[in-house]
Amino acid sequence: MTVNPISLENLKAPKQKREGYGHRYTIPPEKIDMLFNLVADGDSLKLAAKKIGLCYTTAKKYFDEGDKKRGIKPLKVRLELFQEKISEKLNSIAEEQRLDRLTSVSKSVKLMEEKMFGKEVSKDGIIMMEGGEFPEFDFKDYERMIKLQMYLMGGVKSKDSETKMLTAEEISG
Questions:
Q1: Could you tell me which of 63, 91, 94, 87 has the C-alpha nearest to residue 77?
Q2: What is the pLDDT of residues 111-143, one digit of tens each?
Q3: Confidence check: pLDDT of 173 > 60
Q4: List of E strands, the chain
Q5: Of 61, 85, 93, 104, which one has the greatest count of Cβ atoms within 10 A?
Q6: Number of Cα atoms under 13 Å in the Cβ half of residue 171
Q7: 3-state SS, residue 98
């Protein structure tokens, strides 16, 4: 069997490689970060890979396994850490807002109590007159504000009352 000399020359000649393609081509970290950002923003892995010009299988590989040789963590792990940090931040913001609401509800309850017990209070918090006038709010409004205050303080969250029939043995003890 003879080999054509032109074929041997073609094998030895340097090849022009197209940028971004080829077997075992390593993806630049910038593209991996772009993939992470798109997935973190809510795009599917398939759509994110299409947007940055990767095939789905390569994106899936970086999502599941990462690149241990280059020290690139799997995107799945990075996403979990990102979600934990976001959850912590949202919890701290929610806690601040809860405390702000608790302060305003407590002030409102205090003003309602002062009005109920005959002290007229202006918006500035100054007692204007004392008398036994009936307040503009209903007692149910006051009760709702107290429940809201307890809820914001972390007290009772729901009514858990059971009606249970006692047996004669339980009554006699």
A1: 63
A2: 877 777 766 556 665 555 455 454 577 778 878
A3: no
A4: 119-121, 127-130
A5: 61
A6: 5
A7: helix
pTM: 0.50
SS3 120: strand
| Residue 38 CB neighbours (<10 A) | 19
Going by C-beta distance under 8 Å and a sequence separation of 6 or more, which residues neighbour residue 44?
A: none
The Cβ-side half-sphere exposure at 52, using a 13 Å CA radius, reads 23
What do you get for the CA distance between the two ends of the chain, in Å?
106
pLDDT confidence of residue 9: 83
CB 78 within 8 A of CB 117: no
pLDDT, averaged across the chain: 79
Q: For 121, which DSSP code?
A: E
**Eight-state DSSP code of residue 128:** E
